[in-house]
Design a protein that fits this description.
This protein is of the alpha/beta class. It has twelve helices and 15 strands. It has helices at residues 41-46, 114-118, 120-134, 151-162, 174-182, 196-203, 221-226, 249-255, 264-270, 272-287, 304-312, 325-328; strands at residues 2-5, 16-19, 29-39, 65-72, 84-87, 97-101, 105-107, 142-145, 166-171, 187-190, 209-214, 228-236, 258-261, 295-300, 319-323. The strands form three sheets. Strands 3, 4, 5, 6, 7, 14 and 15 form a seven-stranded mixed beta sheet that branches. Strand 9 (166-171), helix 5 and strand 10 (187-190) form a beta-alpha-beta unit. The longest helix has 16 residues, at 272-287. The radius of gyration is 20 Å and the shape is globular. The mean pLDDT is 94.
Amino acid sequence: MKAARIHRHGPPESLVFEEVPSPVPGRGEVLVSVHASAVNFPDTLIIENKYQFKPALPFSPGGEVAGTIKAVGEGVQGFAAGDRVIAVCGWGGYAEEVLTTVDKLVRLPQGIDMESAAALVITYGTSHYALKDRAAIQPGETLLVLGAAGGTGISAIELGKLMGARVIAAASTDEKLALCRASGADETVNYATEDLRERIKALTGGRGVDVVYDPVGGHYAEPALRSMAWRGRYLVIGFTAGEIPKLPLNLVLLKGCSVVGVFYGGFAKAEPARYDAFMQELVGWLADGRLRPTITAHYPLERAAEALRVVADRRATGKIMLTTALGRGD
């Protein structure tokens, strides 16, 4: 099989597209033929050895794929060759085949296309867990999404609207904000040309926002925290800006608000039954058309380095997808 692999930690250009032996599933393992693999920001971190998980070299990045089961190892129950699945593999997904375990599989109903399925877990799963569990967002509350035009941000807009929130989307260009409005945002803020705090104050009549969804970090974090309403919840998703902000805790005290960490991988490991229930709800929403992942770019697997560079440079809008020859029907 062919795979895009990293032999030495480094930037996206370090990926090598090469022929490697096809994996053989061992006991409890499943081999998935990949149709589509999502490109996510954690992929840029894992290849530079900056992520929580540190696989041994050489390896392929790629934490979520959709495809069909090619083979199962001894002791595997509930899945068989030919089954359509999403695999939340963590890494290994930038390849024509990926080896994983049953606990990382989600059964994929007929009628859901592979690319939409591959776009579901990391971004939509994170946002679903963040808004439903960590923020307990309620209909009528106001949600501010930072970095709103990225894959994670768009998922937060769509899920926020699905849960009944009023959504304010913040991004750095008018083109990005147009995508946010197309995805359901009620209001937008261009934080490259507008004062974020003053704009939020105007949009909320001085009350502030109930929930901040922040995958960016950096210097937008403090003005967003200052824009919180009483009993607000500030969701810490990630730090795509590269800088981990130092928040003044006196603001948390004065606003009676909460700063809440969102670690979706930790949730999946610590609470597998609830994780599965959340995932089944997401798949159901995808199946009945209430969720439609915004896929804005498609790259063949052999151009994985180019796709990852777009994400690393924060030029991505919506989701970027890699497709194999099998996924393209070549």
